[in-house]
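Re: [ENG-882] Designed sequences occasionally contain unexpected residues at chain ends

Forwarding the minimal case from QA. Structure tokens:
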């Protein structure tokens, strides 16, 4: 069936794609977990979509990014279904499920949402008001024509504008109480998913459903996790809670209308105690909960619990916005209670820290408490891998040359790997296989890895003059055509300024100069352009062709030493007898470097250089582990060789 699908789509069958499809099919049939590394250009979407369609049970496909989700739903699946629709016994039904806030809310659009005092929020003025009117008209048209009401299909808008026509789970009345429940885009999406064989969703929704235990997805037999290198970060994000003084104050304010006694005032008083405790605390990670902060969190927890119990069982006041206002108010108190309870009872399995806030433009961001799981492999093993068959796939799963780091991170044990001859018949064993189906690219011929061994090691004060000189020389040799991946916004801006000053004939763009899609479009349209930026560019940019012939990486992207979660995980690994630096920091860096280097070669005709300006890649003991995580490029430390190669490429 794969060959028929590829032929119908006008593509060319690749050996890696066939190998992947066979491995996925075997994993689904044998109920063994699978890790499959499939390099860029393999055609891995078809490699798992075809076996998923022919599998007897329902399969969920989870992606990390909306871009891939959009590609699957708008391009790959419709074309695949058209190609195989005449195949006997194949259920080609599919649906997409996203978080609630990704859909327009008809209740908010038609009746508004009450503010903190219960009055209906008025239409914003000016251009924002006009845009909201346009979004409302679009949503009504979607409802009338049976559309999805998804944000991706909406007229162009900002995040702030979209919030005027959508709600999160906390503010939703629920289908049974909402007067528009029968038309609700979210409910209709769930109903369609219930009737579908294949469901496309995202990592976060999968985590909430499978790990948090909140039913979001119809029952399924197996799951394919694409962009699986992102999974642990997305699961961590989904399981992270935050609390600021303003959250408690807002919950107390919203409760004033619905609670007759002093319970809302008591919650406001608890917010004051939390403010005093935060002001007295030092930003950073708390290895032990400070007494004052612990007391304040307990006070908030108890006041929120009492306030919740004071809410009337049935709505006492009819009138405009009643049901929505009450649901919104009670939901905010419930969220405060749940988070304060988790923080006050700080478990050894959680990490708690305080960030110091700061400025965002003209507005000040207040300090916030954060609590996140120390690790996610345990819950993933217990609540996902023990219940379902899981296929993990990505272009980047083998770090340091094997699957063990990624497998361990998601809850699989190296000793359970089937194809290494291990005995995995014991109780609780979760057998898995790992395969690398390779890449259609010849990295040894198409790409050079240049390590600037002669440069000084990077310091804490940003880019040194020697690094700036190296960047200018390389960009000059490439005549633009450069994607610069930097460890900080400050470094990216410093490099951009140096190139603009010394190579004024080139166009040099820095992240923040405009929205990323606009920057990417400009980068692609003119080869004599450089684009410098940070983490967003490391993983999300696809620029094949002569546009990108040089990828610059300023330093090995280890996590910051003061990163609360990473430092806690590293310390825990050391305490357990492992090597925390290699298991956490080096693995994190290897993953990002592999993703960054992957920006260079996107087609079989691409040629270019990945230049790493950090000599530790060549000199440090961990350099071999990092290089083994990169594509097998031809490697040199000679700057003259690299400049000549770039000049030849630029000359065409």
């Amino acid at each position: 069936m794969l060959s028929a699908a590829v032929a119908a789509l006008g593509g060319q069958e690749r050996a890696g794609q066939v190998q992947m499809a066979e491995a996925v099919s075997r994993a689904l049939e044998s109920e063994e977990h699978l890790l499959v590394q499939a390099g860029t250009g393999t055609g891995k979407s078809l490699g798992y979509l075809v076996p998923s369609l022919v599998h007897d049970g329902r399969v969920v496909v989870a992606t990390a990014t909306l871009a891939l989700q959009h590609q699957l739903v708008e391009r790959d699946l419709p074309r695949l279904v058209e190609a195989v629709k005449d195949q006997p016994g194949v259920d080609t039904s599919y649906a997409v499920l996203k978080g609630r806030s990704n859909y327009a809310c008809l209740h908010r659009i038609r009746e508004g949402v009450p503010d903190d005092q219960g009055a209906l929020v008025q239409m914003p003025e000016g251009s924002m008001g006009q845009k909201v009117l346009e979004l409302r008209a679009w949503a009504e048209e979607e409802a009338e024509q049976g559309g999805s009401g998804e944000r991706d299909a909406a007229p162009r808008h900002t995040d702030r504008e979209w919030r005027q026509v959508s709600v999160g789970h906390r503010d939703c009345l629920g289908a049974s109480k909402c007067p528009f429940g029968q038309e609700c885009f979210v409910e209709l999406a769930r109903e369609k998913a219930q009737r579908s064989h294949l469901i496309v969703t995202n990592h976060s929704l999968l985590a909430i459903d499978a790990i948090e235990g909140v039913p979001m997805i119809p029952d399924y037999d197996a799951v394919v996790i694409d962009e699986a290198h992102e999974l642990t970060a997305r699961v961590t994000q989904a399981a992270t809670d935050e609390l600021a003084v303003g959250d408690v104050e807002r919950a107390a304010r919203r409760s004033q209308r619905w609670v007759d006694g002093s319970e809302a005032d008591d919650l406001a008083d608890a917010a004051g105690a939390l403010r005093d405790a935060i002001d007295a605390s030092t930003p950073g990670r708390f290895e032990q909960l400070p007494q004052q902060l612990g007391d304040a969190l307990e006070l908030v927890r108890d006041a929120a619990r009492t306030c919740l119990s004071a809410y009337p069982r049935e709505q006492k006041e009819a009138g405009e916005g009643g049901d929505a206002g009450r649901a919104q108010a009670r939901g905010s108190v419930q969220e405060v209670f749940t988070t304060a309870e988790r923080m006050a009872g700080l478990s050894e399995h959680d990490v708690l820290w305080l960030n110091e806030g700061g400025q965002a433009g003209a507005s000040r961001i207040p300090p916030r408490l954060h609590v996140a799981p120390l690790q996610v492999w345990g819950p993933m093993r217990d609540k996902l891998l023990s219940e379902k068959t899981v296929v993990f796939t990505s272009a980047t799963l083998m770090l340091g040359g094997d699957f063990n780091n990624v497998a361990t991170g998601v809850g699989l044990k190296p000793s359970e790997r089937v194809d290494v001859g291990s005995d995995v018949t014991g109780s609780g064993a979760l057998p898995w296989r790992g395969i690398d189906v390779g890449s259609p690219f010849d990295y040894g011929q198409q790409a050079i890895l240049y390590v600037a061994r002669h440069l000084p090691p990077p310091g804490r004060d940003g880019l040194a003059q020697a690094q700036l000189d190296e960047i200018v020389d390389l960009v000059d040799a490439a005549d633009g055509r450069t994607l610069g991946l930097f460890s900080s916004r400050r470094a990216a801006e410093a490099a951009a300024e140096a190139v603009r000053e010394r190579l004024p004939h080139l166009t040099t763009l820095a992240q923040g100069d405009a929205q990323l899609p606009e920057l990417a479009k400009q980068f692609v349209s003119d080869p004599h352009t450089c684009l410098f930026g940070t983490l967003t560019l490391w993983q999300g940019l696809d620029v094949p062709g002569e546009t990108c012939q040089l990828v610059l990486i300023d330093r090995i992207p280890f996590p910051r030493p003061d990163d609360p979660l990473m430092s806690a995980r590293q310390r825990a690994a050391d305490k357990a007898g492992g090597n925390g630096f290699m298991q956490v920091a080096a693995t994190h860096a290897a993953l990002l470097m592999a993703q960054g280097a992957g920006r260079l070669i996107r087609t079989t005709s691409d040629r270019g250089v990945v230049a790493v300006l950090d000599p530790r890649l060549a000199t440090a003991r961990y350099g071999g582990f990092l290089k083994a995580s990169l594509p097998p490029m031809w490697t040199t430390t000679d700057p003259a060789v690299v400049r000549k190669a770039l000049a030849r490429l630029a000359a065409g």
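QA comment: On inspection the terminal residues look reasonable. The chain has four domains: 2-93+196-234+376-436, 104-188, 246-369, 443-651. Proposing we downgrade this to a documentation issue.
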